Each structure stands twice: as C-alpha cells, then as structure tokens.
C-alpha cells in the first residue's frame, strides 16, 4: 500500500476535487504507479484531517475519470495505462457549477435524486392540448413570442394565489420554469459582485446560477423552522446584500416552514436594509399551509415564483413570477437576456392547463400518490430520524453513526439507487456537517418500483459502512 498523501494547500475548488486532482497528477507523474493501492478512505481522511465523505467523493471522481478501480474488501487501485485512454477529461465549469449529481446519470439506476411530478398519465392531456394549440395557432408557433397573452397572465394569477390573497395580473410574467424565473429576477435586481443571501442548506442550483452570473453568495443561519431573523439582520447589516432567496414553506431539502412571526420579522428587516425577497413557492404551493406569503406581507419588495414541475409536469417547463410594482418590465427584459425568450407553445400550454382545470386535476392525482408513498416512508423508516410531509415528494433523513452523507450516497448508488447527499444543497463553501441525505420518491409510474427503492435505502441504512463497497 502506498503512503501517498495529498496537500490541501494546492489548487482551488472543493476539497474533494483538489484531492482527486493531486491524485491524478501523482498517477501521471508516476508517483502513484500502475497497480498501486491507495490508502483506505478512513485512514486518508484521518491523516489529512477531512471527513470520510470528502475522501469518498474524491475516490469516486477518480473512478469517473477512469484512473482507479475498486473491489469490495480489497481496496482502490491505480488503473493500468491501457485503461486510461477512456478517462473522462476534467471540465472546470462542470466541476464548479455542476453540483454533486452526475451531469449524465448512470443508466439502470432508480432516480431518487429527482422530485419531478409523478407520472399519473398527464401525457395524454398534454398531448391533446398541444395538438389543439398547433391547429389554432400555426403562425404563432412558427414565429417568436413578442406579446403576452392575457390568458397567460390570468393563469399565473390563479396559480400563484394563496388563501384569500391573489396577485395582480399586471405584475405577472410567465417563465420557463421557476429556476429560469429566479435567474431573471437575480439579473434584474443585482449586478456583478453583488451579494445574494441563501441558507446553509437550500436549492443550490440557484446559487450556482448566481455565481455564474458573477454574484456572490452570503449564508444565513436557520433552524428547523427556517431562517433565523436575528442572523438575517446581522447579514444584511454587515454584507449589504441585494436580495435573499427564501423558500418560505416546504423548504428544500429540510422541509422547514417559516412561522408567521418570523415572516413578519424578515419582511421588516428586508425593508430596513432595502433587500429584495425572492420567494420560491414551488413546494409551498403543494403544502398549502395557509400561512400568509412573504409576497402578501411585502408585495412591494417580494418576487413570488411557482410552477408546474413538481405537481403537474416538469417537462412542460411552466412557471410564473409575480413582481413588485414597476418591476415586471425590467424582469421581462432580463428574462429575454438570460433565457433567450419565452416559447409560445409552452406558455400557451401552461396557461391552458391551468385555465381549463386540467392542471388542478393532475395536481390532485399527483398529491394523492405522493401521500400514499409518503405513508410508506413513515412505515419503512419508523424509528429513524427523518422529516417528511404527506404532500411533498422527498424526505430529509439523518444518518446514524458512523455513516457520512457522501459515503451513504455511494453505498446506495452501488445498490442502483441515486439519492442526494447534503453537499448537493450547500450553496457556498461551509464547514458545517449535518449527516443528512435527501431521498426523493416520485420516480416511477408504478408505486411498487418506488417502494422497492425505499426498501433498498432502509436496508443499507441498517448496515455498517464497513459492510458496503462505499469504503475501499
């Protein structure tokens, strides 16, 4: 076994990438020879002072590059030169902005790293409406979208409504999904170098997109109920952010829901420090908990977003944003610059789904199936520490000792199931370790397929990491 040790002071980017880069350089220079056995993950983690999850991810990246292979019980070995021609080249953009999910998911795996709407037969309805649109609007389909149909705005007004509150149609813009809408808002309210506030755990693709546009991420503390107002004020006073990205209900991945008292405090702080609020209500709209939205409390500085991806059809890419007064035209311009423009077919399809009532009917079926599967989660994982909701298609699972998030993800992957480790939800570099994974269960039209995947996750949870191939 080699006594090779990486230096953490060389290179840039995440620790696991730097460790993998050093190993690759050592392999190419001959310092790690063909057939050399790398140190066991647990030993190397101890020697360099990092978590075993970091080493697990570094070794996994080396395997993806075709530089090493591993066998259960034997260890991880440097590949021969004949095999290195198939190594995947490093791509700095993919490493920096791609997150911890594979860009191209490995085939034959159950996708528990997705929360797209469950297939309840919506393709038939979508196909029928698309055919009607193509027949009625051939000219619009063959051209660019230059005007916004009143029906598109009315559909957004209805879909964004919550309780007794309804936004004004004039402030609504249809979007290519919620993510694209958030990007347009970030571009509208901030410039290069400006700071955007995010929680330590959140939907981190927002932060990666913001980084790609030259914005900086500032982290704010939260607990089981969401953002802590006192820390939000500290961040606003010291960092002077332009905007804060907040999932007020059904937070991804923690499922937190901000109590009314905190919402009022956050709104007051945002007004005091002139901070825009970007309220992602994609999961909150599914919960429908009745708590007033940030947009209801502060319509003058809140951008509210919701869409169809989680409870109707992710492939439709339908979504809407309700803007503060006098901001809709600005967001419309940045939307065009960021996304290239809105396609008529998808905007019309989304509107017809909502206004015809089809979207509501599909949502009811999807939520019923989510509830049935979540009941299975509660039964299978009884006695374990996790958080779920009967209207949300994922749960947040705390791992028992000695499991680490990255190691558990790898062990589950070896059993042909893809889940997300906690690092997927970290919007910026953080020293905090939560020992959690997010497990989605919306994959598969047949409930039985989802149940078998959940059983696999539970079986591995009850094992020791030493009994899996995650540590070699």
| Strand arrangement across the biggest beta sheet | 4-12-11-10-9-5-6
Strand content: 5-15%
How many beta-strand segments? 17
Major sheet size, sense and barrel closure:
7 strands, mixed
Overall form: globular
> Low-confidence spans: pLDDT under 50, at least 5 residues?
83-88
Rounded to the nearest angstrom, the radius of gyration is 23 Å
The assigned structural class equals alpha/beta
Arithmetic mean pLDDT: 91
What does this 3D model show about the protein?
This protein is α/β, with parallel strands linked by helices. It is 42% helix and 13% strand. The protein has a seven-stranded mixed beta sheet with strand order 4-12-11-10-9-5-6, with helices on both faces. It has a four-stranded antiparallel beta sheet with strand order 13-14-17-16. Strands 1-2 form a two-stranded antiparallel ribbon. β7 and β8 (226-227) form a beta hairpin. The model is unreliable at 83-88 (pLDDT under 50).
SSE layout and pairing:
Blueprint: H1 15-29, H2 41-48, H3 52-64, E1 68-71, E2 75-78, H4 92-97, E3 110-111, H5 122-136, H6 138-141, H7 150-160, E4 172-175, H8 177-189, E5 195-199, H9 205-212, E6 216-220, E7 222-223, E8 226-227, H10 229-239, E9 243-246, H11 260-272, E10 276-280, H12 284-287, H13 294-297, E11 302-307, E12 319-322, H14 328-339, H15 344-355, H16 358-380, E13 386-387, E14 394-398, H17 405-414, E15 417-418, E16 420-421, E17 436-440, H18 447-461
Parallel strand pairs: 3-15, 5-6, 5-9, 9-10, 10-11
Antiparallel strand pairs: 1-2, 4-12, 7-8, 11-12, 13-14, 14-17, 16-17
Helix pairs in contact: 1-3, 2-3, 3-17, 5-15, 7-15, 8-9, 8-14, 10-11, 16-18
